[in-house]
Amino acid sequence: MNTPALLLRVSLLLLTISCSTSQKAPRAEQGYQAIFDGKTLNGWEYDSTYWHVRDGVLVGEITPETLVKQNTFIIWRGGQPRDFELLVDYRISALGNSGINYRSEDVPGVAHALKGYQADLDGRNRYSGQNYEERGRKFLALRGQRVRLLEGQPPQVLDSLGGGRAALGQLVKPGEWNQVHIIAKGNHLQHYINGALMSDVTDDDAANRKMSGWIGVQVHVGPPMKIEYKNFRLKTLQ
Length: 238
Fold this sequence. Notes:
The chain is mainly beta. The chain is 10% helix and 44% strand. The strands form 2 sheets. Strands 1, 3, 4, 6, 11, 12, 13, 14, 15 and 17 form a 10-stranded mixed sheet that branches. A 7-stranded antiparallel sheet has the order 2-5-16-7-8-9-10, with no helix packed on it.
C-alpha cells in the first residue's frame, strides 16, 4: 500500500474512533450514579404537600395555601456519604429560597428537617453558592470567600475567590437552569456553580464539623416559591 493510501486509512480510522467515543459521558461525569430517577421519589423521604415529580424534574413548591412555618426538606435515604462529589442542575423562582444539604443529621422531634452544611441557593442571588450550616453555626463562608473554621472563633477569611461576591454572582443565571457541583473531601468543602468556585471551607472545628450524613434539598420559610432540581448525580470518593 502506498503512503497516501495508508495515511487516508489511518485518518478514517481515527475519525471513526473519535465519533464513537464522543457519545460517551465526559470524563468529569464518569463514576457518578443517579440518585433521582426522574420519574418517582423512590428512596426519598418527604412531605407530598411540597414535593413532587413533573416532566422529569424534582419540584419543591410552596403556594399561598401551603405556607410553611419551618424549613422542610426532601431527604435522600440511600446512604450517608462521607467523601463525595455531587452534581445537580437547579432552577429557582424569583422569590425562591432553597439549598442542598449534605453531611447532615435529622432534627429530633421535627419531621423532614435537617441540620448540617448547606450549599445555599436563592432566586434573588444574594446567597447562592455560599456555605451555610442549617440549625448550626450559620454563615460559614459567603460567596467569594475561602475560609478556615476553628472552634469557638468566627470564620477566618483567608482570601477572595473569583473577584469576590458580586463578580461571582454574575455567573449565576436568574430564572434559568444552573449547575451546582459540591466537593466534600475530608474537612475540605467546595461549592461550585456553573463551573466557578463560589466558596471554599476548611473546617478545623473538630467539635462541630460533620464528616458524613444525609443529603437533602429544601423549601424555605417565606413567600410562595418554586425550586426545581434535575440530573442528581453522586460520586463517592476513596
